Amino acid sequence: xxxxAVLGYGVVGSGVVELxxxxxxxxxxxxxxxxxxxxxxxxxxxxxxxxKDKFTKSIxxxxxxxxxxxxAECMGGVEPAFTFVKACxxxxxxxxxxxxxxVAEKGAELLEIAKEKNCNFFFEASVGGAIPIIRPLxxxxxxxxxTGVAGILNGTTNFILTKMIGDGMKFDDxxxxxxxxxxxxxxxxxxxxxxxxxxxICIISSLVYGRHVYPKNVYTKGITDIKLExxxxxxxxxxxxxxxxxxxRLENGKILPFxxxxxxxxxxxxxxxxxxxxxxxxxxxxxxxxxxxxxxxxKLPTASAVLGDVIDSVKHDRTVFSQMWExxxxxxxxxxxxxxxAHMYYRVSCSDYYGVGEKIQKAVSDMxxxxxxxxxxxxxxxxxxxxxxxxxSVYESExxxxxxxxxxGKVVSTIPVLM
Amino acid sequence: xxxxAVLGYGVVGSGVVELxxxxxxxxxxxxxxxxxxxxxxxxxxxxxxxxKDKFTKSIxxxxxxxxxxxxAECMGGVEPAFTFVKACxxxxxxxxxxxxxxVAEKGAELLEIAKEKNCNFFFEASVGGAIPIIRPLxxxxxxxxxTGVAGILNGTTNFILTKMIGDGMKFDDxxxxxxxxxxxxxxxxxxxxxxxxxxxICIISSLVYGRHVYPKNVYTKGITDIKLExxxxxxxxxxxxxxxxxxxRLENGKILPFxxxxxxxxxxxxxxxxxxxxxxxxxxxxxxxxxxxxxxxxKLPTASAVLGDVIDSVKHDRTVFSQMWExxxxxxxxxxxxxxxAHMYYRVSCSDYYGVGEKIQKAVSDMxxxxxxxxxxxxxxxxxxxxxxxxxSVYESExxxxxxxxxxGKVVSTIPVLM
Lengths: 419, 419
Known about the structure:
Two copies of one chain form a homodimer. Chain A folds into three domains: 2-127 and 301-323, Rossmann fold; 134-295, Dihydrodipicolinate Reductase, domain 2; 340-416, Alpha-Beta Plaits (2-Layer Sandwich), CATH 3.30.70. In chain A, a hairpin with a 3-residue loop joins strand 11 (277-284) and strand 12 (288-295). By secondary structure, chain A is of the alpha/beta class. Chain A has helices at residues 11-22, 24-31, 59-63, 81-90, 100-116, 134-140, 155-167, 171-180, 189-192, 195-209, 228-237, 299-315, 353-367, 394-406; strands spanning 2-7, 35-41, 55-56, 68-73, 94-97, 121-122, 146-152, 219-220, 239-249, 255-265, 277-284, 288-295, 341-342, 344-349, 375-377, 384-388, 392-393, 410-416. The N and C termini of chain A lie far apart (50 Å). Helix content of chain A is 37%, strand content 24%. Chains A and B meet through helix 1, helix 2, helix 6, strand 12 and helix 12 of A and helix 1, helix 2, helix 6, strand 12 and helix 12 of B. Strand 12 (288-295) of chain A pairs antiparallel with strand 12 (288-295) of chain B.
């Protein structure tokens, strides 16, 4: 018999309990052992719960029981989750977590303790909810040199952008709808300003490139500035604006992680990932590219990922070394994000459409030794010039914007294109 | 040091050798052990190969070495692969294979031997090439009750259909292009008649539902009858014709696997999976739905999957029980495919467009107690009536087709819609 405990009986924790008892028989078959939930930790009272006898307010009950093989941590936030998880791992109890803040801030330290104590710290549920991505990255794709990962890692912002794209809603209206439907919090900052996606790309970057990447070192821009006009002009050009979290390894050996809105061309499958769904595209030298898609959040989808990890904890009591990364305080292997190069979408307000257009065209021709031109998007509105540039770095784009202002244009929007 | 052997030095086998030596350092890191390829088995001579000292023509060299921890089987076909793989497993040597024929025909038997000998028979590469699907299904999604799996499991046919959809090519021309590009064999039957996809859905069905499903018991229809006209009319309605391999569990406990062309509505991500790419959508009670996408074939993509399994073999020397299924000779748990229910696309040739349309509309109204109607697709051509019916079984569709003939219409095409 393998007993486990659930920390936190909120949305995800209660989902873990529900899904476990619903599919207990097949879960036990897959784990190769009888299983049960012995404790549920929560500071609140649940007198009417069918599981009321399992509730405890003290982590010590779990730590001192001696018969707990695994713990599912679904509390969220760094503390007290960190203290509790650390204590479990130090007792040699494997922990599976859905807590992205915890992994993004303390992953390296907790993995190190798990290694010392020969148990596991699993975190499949911390990125992409139901989507299997952590295990495929370090197992199925283990033979690959991973050159980059890019995707949609936040469902709330994807829902908002989908409503802007598909229904022509303005950002504020789409946000309000997301809040009404329960997809966005009352204070939606963590989602719409990109911090949630940032934590997730930090976890992926750390796992893939082997050193802990901290959220504070990753350029993060949300979707609050995205205008309906740009969404519609991007569609004319042939792409969808999505909040993209991305990391790539550069030729100099550094990595370049970021979160920002990008235009995704329609021939990239990510552009068709809509509503609250998430997707992660992985590029490697063996696979070329492979994508994982599914619900990035929600009660049962996240619980599914946590329980998958718990089952693995029960089956394998040895540390999974391939899921380790090194601590790295200064993150000096993270490249300056402004060196990122991409085609850039521009919307330029101007009184002299053809005159400014000609000057911009000439400037681009000069920058590329006559090799390249801008790709003008015909909108029918001659008060604004919209176009996509050849590939340039963010630094180059900044000085290009200055040139445009010099030509008498006013740069309204710039959005990089995901290629 | 963990030595392994590669059986077969064709496209996939040579890819395994290439990818292993390219990424050896990181592969060894992930395996937690030094690794090398000690033997490559092939009946042919490779005197100019840098690995010429590793070649052998005799499986006995590998079986009797005593120092081989894992084998990558990349020969293809049932024999002699089956005899060789069986002999390896009986010696307790774990085998990872890319051979879908072998797994579809002999999976249950080989898994049973692996269990007896406490080693592993892995087959991630046998379905979906580079796409991680086997391990996610039995590990990451282990907490789910899987209600169905559907996808595009053959790259050659998807390339042909993409060319018909995107470039307006006729089937024969698209097939010729696929052959010229090396995507289709000179004798393309296994691909275009659906047998390749059938083997893969058999493997998925066996793994998900726990009993061996044989290809001969799975209804399989290829794409040779697909007309460019239907592709174009489907696009007008809002969907793409794809060769879909699907299995679902029915309320009576039986399963319903099949391979056939279906119209996939554009709001289903599968409709946007183009060229030689594959994708597998999995539905479960926890995850709702999740999709895996990538290259379904090719040298390095398939090698990536084989090597991922080899690395796991080296790391875990215990049998993975969750990847087992039971033998089942008669397949009486496979439901009659004609009980499958779907909306049906019809193209009906008729001299009296409005008269026949009215009769069909009335027949559908009678079948659904006045609740439902056909969804007529306006093509501008009144010599053919094109529409999508309410949901009906294949049996019902057959008698509905007879009725249409009675009304004076000639049924040119029927294609079910994937919902």
